[in-house]
């Protein structure tokens, strides 16, 4: 029987950060369906959606490099809001020379 390995301290820190980021991502998915007049805090999470998503993608890369199953935390968080992700369009301004 294989003995379970404990997570190193740095992985525990990143795990807590990852869980917090996933929670923030899930809250940001509520932004399109809540009224900012009544629950104004969720609107700020909606504005922070792109950076939160980017940091979650970085966390996916970190857990993949560590070869850990904890990558599923961020992956499932992103997949829960895939409908929100489809609606976002990013426009990059053209550089005129």
Please explain how this structure is put together:
- With 97 residues, the chain is mainly α.
- The protein has one domain (9-85).
- 63% of the residues lie in helices and 0% in strands.
- It has helices spanning 9-28, 40-47, 49-65, 71-80, 82-87.
- This is Endonuclease.
- It comes from Mucilaginibacter humi.
- Keywords: Membrane, Transmembrane, Transmembrane helix.
- The chain crosses the membrane at residues 12-32, 38-62, 69-96.
Poorly predicted spans = none
Count of discrete structural domains: 1
State the order of secondary-structure elements, H for helix, E for strand.
HHHHH
What's the mean pLDDT score?
82
Rounded to the nearest angstrom, the radius of gyration is 17 Å
Strand content: under 5%
How many strand segments?
Answer: 0
Keywords: Membrane, Transmembrane, Transmembrane helix
Protein name: Endonuclease
Transmembrane segments: 12-32, 38-62, 69-96
Organism: Mucilaginibacter humi
Brief characterization of the structure:
The chain is mainly α and 97 residues long. The chain has helices at 9-28, 40-47, 49-65, 71-80, 82-87. Keywords: Membrane, Transmembrane, Transmembrane helix.
Topology:
Blueprint: H1 9-28, H2 40-47, H3 49-65, H4 71-80, H5 82-87
Helix pairs in contact: 1-2, 1-3, 1-4, 3-4
List keywords for this structure.
single chain, 97 residues, mainly alpha, 5 helices
């Amino acid at each position: 029987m294989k003995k379970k390995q404990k997570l190193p301290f740095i992985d525990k820190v990143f795990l807590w950060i990852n869980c917090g980021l996933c929670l923030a991502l899930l809250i940001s998915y509520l932004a399109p369906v809540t009224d900012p007049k009544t629950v104004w805090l969720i609107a700020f999470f909606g504005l922070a959606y792109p950076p939160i998503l980017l940091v979650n993608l970085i966390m996916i890369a970190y857990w993949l490099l560590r070869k850990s199953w904890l990558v599923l935390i961020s992956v499932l968080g992103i997949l829960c809001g895939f409908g929100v992700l489809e609606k976002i369009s990013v426009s990059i301004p053209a550089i005129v020379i």
